């Protein structure tokens, strides 16, 4: 799955209400089959917008999303339905993403039927299988969403997504609405399902510990642009972009032995409606130079070993 958004100006007003405007700005990402790509950044940086754009819920005003090397821009009818089936999104809030009046079994039956996933006589057995897959008891099919805990509801949402046999799962803050004690169970379920089913996962989260735990690669987003992307281990151990360094240093749980190393960013996150010139980070960057105000840095480096968008930082040389 390849997402490319290449107009350099803020031209993507995605939310319907002016209050919630978020923008993406020149984002280009490739999601490799079978990997988990983590997306991190402060809230309001465009993470959710990116997730939704990739899932096809927002249409970029410029740029394209290609799937298996083919542009999805002109998808209609059967091709559009097929894309919508193969790329499934799971939302943050398990309390509002499930229809409160539909029994779990009916919810799954509906998904299976809409996409013609199996013959009518096999639907019941498939529902049992799906509940087994997400480790819910089979009698869950008879119940309504309100009869479940938040963690169980997220399992139901995962079962619904899996019912249509997707290739890509996009999880936007999958567990951030859940109790910490439940988060690990749901995330570990996701990991084992990924393994079992060979899923490709886009994992959007503000919790850096979680992202590090689940991701093969990580992309750091600042004001709608990718500022650094690379192998998760390397990026967490040795972030290169000044923004990645600050973001990671602010997560104390990542480095329990190192205290007092937090890089405090001065200045507020600028409004996405008024992105600074040059490097959008220059007003908060501890090492900014004149060139940073003038020219926007582009992502450089090897997509495999890591890429950084900064005038003063060299990407890894290999
Ligand atoms: Fe800082 Fe300049 Fe690099 Fe931007 S380009 S991160 S302002 S050093
Ligand atoms: Mg969000």
Task: Fill in the keyword field for this structure.
elongated, single chain, binds magnesium ion, Rossmann fold, 4-stranded antiparallel sheet, binds iron/sulfur cluster, alpha/beta, 8-stranded mixed sheet
Which helices and strands occur, and which strands form pairs?
Elements: E1 2-4, E2 28-30, E3 36-40, H1 47-54, E4 64-67, E5 70-71, H2 77-86, E6 87-90, H3 104-114, H4 123-133, H5 150-163, E7 168-172, H6 180-197, E8 200-204, H7 208-214, E9 217-222, E10 225-231, H8 232-237, H9 242-249, H10 290-294, E11 300-302, E12 306-308
Parallel strand pairs: 3-8, 3-9, 6-7, 7-8
Antiparallel strand pairs: 1-2, 1-4, 4-5, 9-10, 10-12, 11-12
Bound molecules: iron/sulfur cluster and magnesium ion.
Task: Explain how this protein is built.
- This protein is α/β, with parallel strands linked by helices and 318 residues long.
- The chain has a single domain (2-237), classed as Rossmann fold, CATH 3.40.50.
- Helices cover 31% and strands 16% of the residues.
- The chain contains ten helices and twelve strands.
- The strands form two sheets. Strands 6-7-8-3-9-10-12-11 form an eight-stranded mixed beta sheet, sandwiched between helices. The chain has a four-stranded antiparallel beta sheet with strand order 2-1-4-5, with no helix packed on it.
- The longest helix has 18 residues, at 180-197.
- It is elongated.
- The two termini are 24 Å apart.
- The site of magnesium ion (MG) has 3 residues, from helix 1.
